[in-house]
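Q: I'm writing up a methods section and want to include an example of the input and output format. Could you take the sequence below and give the corresponding predicted structure tokens, formatted cleanly so I can copy it straight into the document?
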Amino acid sequence: MKIRISRLFAAMLTVGIAPTASAYDPLYSEQWHLNNTGQTSFAANPGVVGNDLNTQLTQAMGIAGVGVKVAVIDTGVQIDHPDLAANVVPGSRNLVEDSEFPIDYPIDENGHGTAVAGLISAVGNNGEGGRGVASRSSLVGFNWLDSQTVEGWLISHGADPSTSDVRVFNQSYGFSPTTPIPFDGTDPEFKLELDVMKDVSSNNAWGAGQYSLNQRVMVIATSTRVASLFCLLISLPEQ
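A: Here is the clean output for your methods example:
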């Protein structure tokens, strides 16, 4: 307990004295969601001071996604990007058939998935770009949006050894309100997806899931901001 209190006190001092003293990422000063100082962040209007994720204390304590594996299921991820590569771990998959790229390189020809991966897991304090909310998390990527097969969905969503230890699944996809997808509980494919999510959440390597606030596997189908925040909440600082 004394050690934890001491670390907390030290972190509070660090934040109070110099919030960015140990940080060097060229675009960090523009990342209003991490530290909103009222900067314009390349927009016409300034932000609202203090309207951010309030992560300075957790970052100072070293709670930055350590030990958390995140799967970005999107248009792909440029896993050799200089601001991502250090956090990338084995398990990514190129789901596009007959692709000229290797099976473990989820080519991102759109850029959206790589941007999402950066918001979550861009390496911090490395002199490159910005910083992810969970800047020390482990990252895998899947270009499922470019090849939406049932097999690819199962692989990327936890029904495969490469994703059985994922703790956060970021699903940056959905449907348009103008063309909604009807809910059909009798659809066998839909039922399979629900069953996989339930199994992954309850019985995967962590043995827990999104059905309780005390469980650890998170399936995020809303925003990157939420997914990144969960990376922080469920990780622990290095001992």
